[in-house]
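Hi R.,

Quick one: here's the Extra-cytoplasmic solute receptor sequence you asked about.
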Amino acid sequence: MVVENKGGAGGIIGTDYVAKSAPDGYTLLMTIPGPITSNLALYKKLPYDPRTELRPISDIATARTVLAVNSSVPAKTVAELLAYAKASPGKLRMGSWGAGTQPHTIQTYIARQYQADMLHVPYRGEGPMVTDLLAGQVNVTVGSVTALKQHFATGKLRPLAVTGTRRAQGLPDVPTFAEAGYPDDPFRLTGPITLMAPAKTPQDIIDRLGRETASLVASADMQRRIVDMGAEPLGNTPAQAEAAYKAYLPVVLKLTADTGVTLD
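And here's the predicted structure, written out as tokens:
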């Protein structure tokens, strides 16, 4: 297998390349959610439609995000953070790794659903955002477990809740949003890392790729690699991955549209 990174334009270049490739099982897409979900709401002239030009083979893993605050914020629970936001307008600045990203959509949802006053501050990537979060330039975020976990141990940042339906493997002591009293659908979302093929790829090829992928993900070495990256192994079947995508997509599209952000 040859890995060819085709970055740029929010994943559009690489995703379009695979969508337009021959459906022979030799050109596949490994993608995070954005190019196949939120891009549909962010871009009016997307050159591909993932709903009709691509099909899932397997969700390799899922990445969690965590609501976290700078230690200077006097909140140890989600409820305390929302109370602080209401009582202290203008005090909370929520950093994200870009407009239209999951942190941005969740910030918008929290602000509207719970009347929480938080200023959204977008960055060009998660690294610069974490640097400013540690410095207090922004003081709250929804970020990746991978990027934030090390700073919880030092006490510089404080985790409040993780997204998803169960606790994150890397943060077993941090409750889910539902456990914290907020079972809203947007807080149940995680970030699947999905292997996809052109939509017209024959079913027998999809099934074989699905079996091989599941076998690889189940190996001890791959399980360890995925966990070390801060993600959680999945390796589901093509049918399961497709069902998950169909359930995930409308929730993400509504959340992204609610931000009012477009990028073209």
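Residues 238-259 form the longest helix (22 residues).

Cheers,
M.
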